[in-house]
Amino acid sequence: MPPDEQPHRPAGDGAAEGDTVMKTELTLNALQSMNAQEYEEIRAAGSDMRRNLTHEVMREVDAPANWMMNGEYGSEFGGFFPVQVRFTPAHERFHLALCSPGDVSQLWMLVLVNGGGQPFAVVQVQHIFTPVAISHTLALAATLDAQGYSVNDIIHILMAEGGQA
Asked: Which UniProt keywords apply (predicted)?
């Protein structure tokens, strides 16, 4: 089985006693109940654990058709968050970055970044991971982009729509 398809280690498989990170099954309920420190613990547990965490988040969110979905596995996007997934339309003029709680923020954030890095804006903030709301915001961004809205207009509309979930 390829490394990316390895099943998550269940409890009692040799993980150290009290090692809750290794025993946590990464279901949607687990992702929604974890706090910032728990996300950081998974990141600290190594690249395989971080990759599994990122893939579980990616499985829960629907990317718009013809958009790229890329997870951060090292520090290719700066390494600021335990999970960062970037959603990018084919033209690559902007992307939306989904960022998990961690040392930088206690909240889930969806950030729109222009291809040149400016402007950028937090367009959605969530206390609990809510894939339906994230998927809705991504679909709205894709629709606005397809209708020819500017990046600035997309930012303002998403901020008005997204707010806090």
From this structure: Plasmid
- Nearest CA-CA partner of 100 in 120, 78, 85: 85
Both structure tokens of 128: 């609990």
pLDDT in tens, 80-115: 999 999 999 999 999 999 999 999 999 999 999 988
φ and ψ of 154, to 5 deg = -60, -45
Adjacency order of strands within the sheet including 108-114: 68-71, 84-88, 94-99, 108-114, 120-126, 163-164
Instruction: Please report the domains of the chain, with CATH numbers, ordered by start residue.
Output: 3-164 (3.40.50.11880)
Q: What angle do CA 60, 4, 82 make, to 5 degrees?
A: 60
Rounded to two decimals, the pTM is 0.83
∠ CA(100), CA(139), CA(71), 5° rounding?
A: 35
Evaluate whether 157 touches 96 at the Cβ level (below 8 Å): no
